[in-house]
Please model this.
Amino acid sequence: MKSILKPSRRQIRCWGLSVTLSVSFLFLFLCFPLHGETMIKGEKIREEVIRHIERSMPWDHKEVRMDVELPPDQADLTEKMAIIRVETVGKEDYLGEMTFLVRISQGKIHRQITVRGTIELLKSVIVSARALPAGSVIGESDILVKKKWVTRLDPLLVSSPEEVVGKQLSTSLKAGMEIKRTTLTAPLLVKRGKTVRINLEKGPLKISTIGVSEEDGAQGALIRVRNISSNRHVYARVVGENLVQVEF
Model:
């Protein structure tokens, strides 16, 4: 019978080291990109999030700036083989602080990464060109158009000069202050106690006389006036400065 040679301790240690190295190389082979392949870097993931924002947001790209955080590199995934999808989490107004879910798939590996960012929009706002007292009727020279980065849309802010010119201020403003809708009123075209012209028109009949207003009134307001000739009171609609029209 042939004798069976027992391996020495040194041989056993060498075999153990060989197995350990083989397992390590196999792990590196399976978990890390091969030579020549590029791992998925955080910058690549951020670029995908930015592209998703640009495709989805309603704003002009030239009027938007964004700050998207840099996710960690995915060293065990290759850029060539992976599929990257981006979804918006929560609100979808694409303004202010936003959260995005990045799904990465490669073979049997499925990973989710949360990426946060901030989106700002460049908006026009109307500001006072100088100090304006309450009651002022705003003219074109009283205002300036200013550009401002915002993270939310304020419904009270005015962005167009057409919305402001000709309106009256209900409160005083310092130079450079933003003009809001709550500070604007229609200007008074007729003031209480002032003389007004009263027009009456019905078909071919046209009558005009002088009266005294007993109420303040803006354009379109229905106010009480007194006919000086007859001393009678009538209700008439304001149609211009110190001009009212009786309706039938």
About this structure: The chain has three domains: 39-120, 122-185, 188-246. Confidence is low (pLDDT under 50) at residues 21-36. The radius of gyration is 38 Å.
